[in-house]
Design a protein that fits this description.
The chain is mainly beta. It has one helix and eleven strands, in the order βββββββββαββ.
Length: about 130
């Protein structure tokens, strides 16, 4: 069973930074893709960024491009999301998850809601950005 544990959220002022961590376990293959998605109250899930373990290729939603950086430490089974220049509209619960690689990539780069394709996700970590 694939499991995720997210951490690193908190309250920060606009313009500040946070680094989220996602520790994954239970994978039996190395070619999986991890996505960070977020959900604000009353809003749909938004795919923020994804990375594939086998090639390390990162993708970003337009809303975070240039401000967020996804990375992975395969030895620690951990994926990070470095978030800089945070804005109030970044306030949300952030989750890491996995699913079919193509679906996750399309979700992130197009905004089309592919969240129904998720196979597993963690409990989330809250990010609040004050203006």
């Amino acid at each position: 069973e694939v499991q995720f544990v997210e951490s690193g959220g908190g309250l920060v002022q606009a313009g500040g930074s946070l680094r989220l961590s996602c520790v994954a376990s239970g994978f039996t293959r190395d070619d999986y893709t991890i996505v960070w998605f977020r959900q604000a109250p009353g809003k749909a899930r938004e795919g923020v960024s994804c990375i594939t373990r086998s090639d390390g290729h990162p993708l970003y939603a337009d809303s975070v491009k240039g401000r967020f950086t996804i990375s992975s430490d395969n030895a620690k089974n951990t994926v990070y999301l470095q978030m800089n220049n945070l804005k109030p509209e970044d306030t949300a619960a952030y989750y890491c998850a996995t699913g079919p690689q193509l679906a996750l990539r399309i979700w992130v780069i197009s905004g089309a809601n592919f969240s129904s394709h998720l196979d597993a996700w963690g409990q989330g970590t809250l990010v609040a950005v004050s203006s």
